[in-house]
Amino acid sequence: MLSLSDWITTLSLVFGGCCSNAITLEHITARYPNAGVLITFFQFLIVSLYGLPKQFTFNDPPESKHAANGPNGTVSAPTTPRRRWIPRLKNRKVPLLPYFIQVALFFVLSTLNNAAFAYHIPMTVHIVFRSGGMIINMILGWMFTKKRYTVRQVVSVVVVTAGIITTTLSASKPKSHTAEVLGTSNTSLYAMGISILGLALVLSGFLGLIQDWVYARYIAPAEAEAASDPTGQSLWQEHMFYLHSLALPLFYLSKDNISMELTRMSSSPPVFLSLPQSGPLAPYEAGLIVPSIFVYLLLNTCTQLVCVVGVNRLTGRVSSLTVTLILTVRKAISLLLSVAVYGGQGNTEMWVGAGLVFIGTIGYSTGIKIQSNDQKEKKD
């Protein structure tokens, strides 16, 4: 159970990090729509660097119970872990193979989501479309795990589907005479972007199935032992680190694209960043001149770290129902901020579609709670 201070910290990380990250992401992709891979690389890199120190220890691995037995079969007193000069990686709770499978899916869908901006996908549509993951989760759950759903859940998914279709069509309409002239090419480009987001949504559903299996197979038993292992690391920290760090070598395949986008960004208008002045240098103005877009790239990278840490802290400490509801509210706030800051993206159809998606998401989540309560009553 989270304390009040834990709630304040976690919610501040989620809402502050994720909402500000969406704002900086929209600023960058509006000017450099092909920078999706570059943005993803820096996001994965900073999360990996943040989690790296927490994965090392200078203690030798604990001895097994058999090794602790005395010569007469008696259990000897536990010894103090020996220190070592060279650090080693902490023992993982999950084997590498499940991580590799998750990393492959997570890397591809993250790259696809950011690459979709190159196909004229507005941030508003991006947010709403990615909120429809429950549709895929329901279909895959019914097909592969034989899950059964309540009437409320099915109706909620239909509402979400209608909302996504409405929002998608609202942004595909040309808004000017010039756009009407280029309507065919723009529509095909937009359709390609929606297809990319759709593929990412399907991959996200499969990733969810694998994560559910990993949780039941490895994480749930490990949580029972966590209280008796004070030297062990938090499971969400391990998951966050390996999911991002193991994907870094894959960016080598996109090194040319990353280098090209960095070159383009370096030609953006410069901005002067003043440095703190004190002592004998106080009368003089000191600072750095950097391309302005690099400031937004740095902010986007840092806020992504805050967002990822917040979401992982939340996922590891509360129920999936609570996580879904909080992230739904977060997406709604991101949508409002996007329209408020950049404007010109909202219309009646878009707001109707977004409302249907968020209402359907909440209805689906409450349907999960009703279903679990019914199952408990049957057992009783």
Automatic annotation (TrEMBL):
This is UAA transporter. PANTHER family: NUCLEOTIDE SUGAR TRANSPORTER SLC35B4, SOLUTE CARRIER FAMILY 35 MEMBER B. It is found in: Endomembrane system. The keyword Transport applies. Residues 62-81 are annotated as: Disordered. InterPro entries: EmrE-like, SCL35B1-4/HUT1. It comes from Suillus plorans. One of its GO terms (molecular function) is UDP-xylose transmembrane transporter activity. It is a multi-pass membrane protein. The keyword Transport applies. Keywords: Membrane, Sugar transport, Transmembrane, Transmembrane helix, Transport. Its main location: membrane. The chain crosses the membrane at residues 32-52, 96-121, 127-144, 151-169, 189-210, 321-344, 350-370. It comes from the Eukaryota. GO terms for cellular component: endoplasmic reticulum membrane; Golgi membrane.
